[in-house]
């Protein structure tokens, strides 16, 4: 049997676990809603129970260790979650140490976006590249940077908060409190907000029909654009222009071999690609214009595969 790692993706909504082989293949998978409001003790108990359930699916498996991707801010070296906003009561929690004591296996902790970047680099769209920037465009915008085969951590592991680089002087205020963040103008949430503002309940538009006259989401916009709706296509073009500006900044900052786009809005990559590329051609210095922007390949399992890779590369 190949080398195996036990991997976790700890989200504010869902806790996911898998046994992952060293070829990036999932041997077993389980998930449960995260009891995010109940504090660290309860969630750590959930992790232990999910570990037992996952390992029972492959009785002969002997994991080398545990890799866990979790929301930041966190310190990957010390294995401490500092104060993740999606988990109530988590402040300076030594998650790696507590899990190691509980499950008797070595534990590696990493920011969830960094874990996904590592997964795409080793087994997904970034295979063979020396460096990449992974950008997840979903409810918010997050990312991870791989340079010369290593995750870029920065001071206290806080590098790569690309959703909060300022790309305009105008926009609604971001959840971080600033105005003009990449996340505030180009996330799936921002796309849905613009679509909701352009339409009204009961107006018969494709967007409101898809949303059943509720708030329109980014996914609704992609779906309507795919069917040829003119309003949605205009929104997609504007979204792509914002993404292109952000991606141009990332090219200048990190000079990667590629940018890998994941997250829910990446399902509309085919619609976004041309205006993203056009914006990069308009704004990037010539040396950066041939860097490809490609869709992620691992989907929702990128974080789990990357978390397992923390063990395989250790």
UniProtKB/TrEMBL annotation:
It comes from Rhizobium gallicum bv. gallicum R602sp. Pfam families: ROK. Its EC number is 2.7.1.2. Keywords: Kinase, Plasmid, Transferase. Belongs to the ROK (NagC/XylR) family. One of its GO terms (molecular function) is glucokinase activity. InterPro entries: ATPase_NBD, ROK, ROK_cs. It is an enzyme of class 2 (transferase). It comes from the Bacteria. This is Glucokinase protein.
């Amino acid at each position: 049997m190949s080398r195996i790692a036990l991997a976790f993706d700890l989200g504010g909504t869902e806790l996911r676990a898998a046994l992952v082989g060293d070829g990036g293949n999932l041997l077993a998978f389980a998930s449960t809603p995260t009891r995010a409001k109940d504090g660290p003790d309860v969630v750590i108990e959930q992790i232990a129970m999910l570990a037992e359930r996952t390992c029972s699916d492959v009785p002969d498996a002997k994991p080398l260790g545990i890799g866990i991707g979790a929301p930041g801010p966190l310190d990957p070296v010390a294995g401490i979650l500092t104060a993740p906003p999606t988990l109530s009561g988590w402040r300076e929690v030594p998650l790696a140490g507590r899990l190691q004591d509980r499950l008797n296996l070595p534990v590696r902790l990493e920011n969830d976006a960094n874990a996904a970047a590592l997964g795409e680099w080793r087994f997904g769209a970034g295979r063979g590249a020396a460096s990449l920037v992974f950008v997840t465009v979903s409810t918010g915008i997050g990312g991870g940077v791989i340079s010369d085969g290593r995750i870029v951590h920065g001071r206290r592991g806080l590098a790569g908060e690309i959703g909060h680089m300022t790309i305009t002087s105008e926009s609604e205020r971001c959840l971080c409190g600033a105005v003009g963040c990449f996340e505030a103008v180009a996330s799936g949430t921002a796309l849905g907000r613009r679509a909701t503002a352009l339409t009204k309940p009961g107006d018969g538009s494709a967007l409101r029909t898809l949303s059943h006259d509720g708030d329109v989401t980014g996914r609704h916009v992609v779906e309507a654009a795919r069917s040829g709706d003119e309003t949605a296509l205009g929104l997609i073009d504007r979204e792509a222009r914002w993404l292109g500006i952000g991606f141009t900044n990332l090219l200048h900052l990190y000079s990667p071999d590629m940018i890998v786009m994941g997250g829910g809005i990446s399902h509309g990559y085919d619609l976004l690609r041309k205006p993203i590329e056009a914006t990069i051609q308009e704004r990037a210095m010539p040396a950066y214009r041939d860097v490809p922007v490609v869709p992620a390949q691992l989907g929702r399992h990128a974080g789990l595969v990357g978390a397992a890779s923390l063990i395989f590369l250790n």
